[in-house]
Amino acid sequence: MLHLTKPKIAAIWITIVLAGVAAGWHGARRARAHFLADLVDDARRCAAAFDPDSLHALNGTRNDVTGAAYAAVKRRLIRLQAVDRRLRDVRLYRFVPETGRVVLLADSTGPGAQPEAWPGDSDPQAEHSPGLQEVIRTGLPSAEEPRRDDSGTWATGYALIDEVPSAKAGVPLKQIVGLELDAADWSRTLWAAAFPWALSVWVLLGLPFAAWRVVRRQLDQREAIRNLSEAMEQSHSALMIVDLESRIEYVNRGLCRQSGYMRREMLGRNWRDFQAAETPPERLAELTSSVRAGQPWEGELFSRRKDGTLYPVRGVVTPVRKRDGTLACYIAVLDDMTGIKRTEAELREARDLAQAGDRAKGQFLATMSHEVRTPLNGIIGFTNLLLGTALTAEQRDYVETIRTGGEALLALTGDILDFARIESGKLQLEPVACDPCECVEEALDLLATRAAEKNLELLHWAGDDVPTAVLADGSRLRQVLVNLVNNAVKFTLAGEVEVRVRLVAPVANPAPAGPLPAGSPLPPAVGAETCVLEFSVRDTGIGITPEQHDKLFKPFSQVDASNTRKYGGTGLGLAICKNLVQLMGGQISVVSEPGRGSTFSFTISAAVIAPTAPPADLRGLRLALVAPAGPLRRELARLAARWRAPVIEADEPAALQEAQWDTALVVVDEPLACRLAAQSAPARELPPARTLALVPVALSRELRAALHAHFRLLLNKPVHHAALLAQLSGISTAPVLTTPPPTHFGFRVLLVEDNPVNQRLMQRVLVTLGCQATVVDNGRRAIEALARDDAGYDVVLMDLHMPEMDGVTAIDAIRAGKAGLRAQGLWIAALTADVRDSQKARTLTAGANDYLTKPLKLPELEAALRRYRETRQAASK
């Protein structure tokens, strides 16, 4: 039998409804056609009632009113209107081809009618009347759809009375009669005509389908009952139906199999006969009281099989009600719990053993952490002290080996403890305010010595839009970075290791900028604005094959797991990194190719505390950059470009002899340091007072002491960008660039801003630009201010997020004329901290002329006012 799904049934009903609607539409169209045809016939008969010669006696001017011909025509028009009480007016028109005008000859209204029409008047509706224009163009009678005016709803029919040649060749003079018929019941007539058609279709199509649905539903119900019966009989669970007297009415094969009784041995008996005495009496009482009250009951019971053995069951007893709400019977579902109880006992035993093992492991790790870190602290501390004394080269090598081994053991202990905390779920993040760029630089500082020993360059770069402070666990973030950079240094024989930070997801609503030291707790008011930052660590090392990627983030697993592996390690570092990154709301991934290096990337989600600071401006400083061509020089040149400092690049100091510069930054490797140390005096091309050196962190004290005679300051690699900026800003000797004074505009400005601090700031800025500012704190008050008679504002600066009425709503209202006609065309500039493209598009669509974003600089506001002034001047020309 055909089975229809619910979407198909719905589609059929929709089709039936639409077919009825289509039939009703057809009926309405027929009624409309009959109505308009009757109106055309009436107009044609009315036209036949006039003698064309009598009409030619009319001049079509007001002078006709005193003539006998006009009076006769007027009487006939009034009689024609009286024929049908639905007629509102009967009019005679004359189309004059020489002028192209349609003038009124006479109408059926009595004297003093309002509005009163006179012969010779031009009909203002003539040009827009399709029926009248049709008669003028073709000479055929026509009728117009009903239209509504102040006096009601009317339909109009037109017919040509006669036409005669005119002075204009090819266009005859035409005299036309027009009937205006009352059409107040037009809609009712169309609905009355449409309904029988629609009802007929609905009855003819809907009743058979409804009858088919009823029959189909009955068949489905029978099939469902049959399937339900088979399902109950074949169910693995034991099913039993008990009447209100506790007698068994039905049992399935599952209950017979579970209890060992035959079906006939159980039917008609009380269900309590099969309950074991071990079931607590209060549980049976609870079961009985619940089901007799009409509530389902669920719990565990003990039953006894036919052979006398005891077994636990999990039972669900549900009352069954009749349609009138009274109880009919009870149905019980009983599951044998013997196997489940046995499994639960085994699991409890295994859990207890596992918990005991976890407690022992935790205690052992805590004890070992204390016992290992205590001597390591002394070893590492005294090793560092020893390195500060006079040692031979051989002794220094031995001590460095001791320190390296101690630090490796300390790091290994930390990794094991972190992994244990992660496995037990006890590792908690401690979010505080931190600078992502500082975290990167501190991580690189920890690996700087090791990278210098391998002659590797450590580079880093942060995007321009990276926030200066976010809410994150800085120590854990540094731990992930140190692990990844350490691996990059370990597996890179030559080249560089670079760390990059970029903003992946922009801030939804940037938090207000303000001084907040890194490491301070998050203020309670901040926390809803979040961003996603991506950190990537790229190296030029040995690389990893795609087949080995799966091993990277598994604990105690390494790409090279052989006993003779070259690089060593426990295989915990990347596993810990993965878990820490996930705790910080991100993911970690790797892209690598053997022989071409690897790039490890991870993201974190963090609340924004302070947005990106504007870039520094060192346009007055001419910077000379002396470094070998390579990635470090490119990074320093990019920094100078970010700070707008003109750069002169050179490979050697000698290349600066003819160059004009203010400050030089020289990258000094160990060979160059030895060469400079051997010179008795500084080089003429590098005056020490204007020269900074960038040196390896592992450069010896002797060479450092010798270099102080050649450079004003020595900076360790990798250089901190903020520290370098501070040094360059502090020693800049170039003159300060001056800017021209701001323009004096003389505008009256309405400032709509709810923040008191921003109000005071913008008032001062507008005064600086020679503007007079009035301040209101929401959109509703802005509309009230603009609607006052004395309002003479030139510009409106509109904030978008305000109480009572927001900026977009206020702009909509102003453009709609709610603040007066003069305010409709005012220049409105949005001034907001919302930098989303969608918000900008929405604001401009509402009617804003300009869109300015906070924090707003004076030149930006000056440029916006200048745009307004240019637009106003262009419009006045």
SSE inventory with pairings:
Layout: H1 6-48, H2 52-56, H3 68-83, E1 87-96, E2 101-107, H4 130-138, E3 142-149, E4 152-164, E5 173-182, H5 186-234, E6 238-242, E7 248-251, H6 253-259, H7 263-266, H8 281-292, E8 297-304, E9 310-321, E10 327-336, H9 338-387, H10 393-424, E11 432-434, H11 436-453, E12 457-462, E13 469-472, H12 474-490, E14 496-505, E15 530-539, H13 573-583, E16 588-592, E17 598-610, E18 623-626, H14 631-642, E19 647-650, E20 663-667, H15 670-677, E21 691-696, H16 701-707, E22 713-717, H17 721-730, E23 748-752, H18 756-768, E24 772-776, H19 779-787, E25 795-798, H20 807-815, H21 821-824, E26 827-832, H22 837-846, E27 850-853, H23 858-876
Parallel strand pairs: 12-14, 18-19, 18-20, 20-21, 21-22, 23-24, 23-25, 25-26, 26-27
Antiparallel strand pairs: 1-2, 1-5, 3-4, 4-5, 6-7, 6-10, 8-9, 9-10, 11-13, 13-17, 14-15, 15-17, 16-17
Helix pairs in contact: 1-5, 9-10, 10-13, 11-12, 12-13, 15-16, 19-20
Kindly state the mean pLDDT as a whole number?
80
Overall 3D shape:
flat
| Number of helical elements | 23
- Estimate percent helicity: 40-55%
Could you say what the CATH architecture of the largest domain is? 2-Layer Sandwich
Secondary structure class reads alpha/beta
Overall strand count: 27
Question: What is the assigned CATH homologous superfamily of the largest domain?
Answer: Histidine kinase-like ATPase, C-terminal domain
Largest sheet: 7 strands, mixed
Our estimate of the beta-strand percent is 15-25%
Class of the largest domain in CATH?
Alpha Beta
Can you tell me the CATH topology of the largest domain? Answer: Heat Shock Protein 90
Flag low-confidence runs: 509-528, 561-565, 731-739
Domains (count): 6
CA-CA gap between termini: 81 Å
Radius of gyration: 47 Å
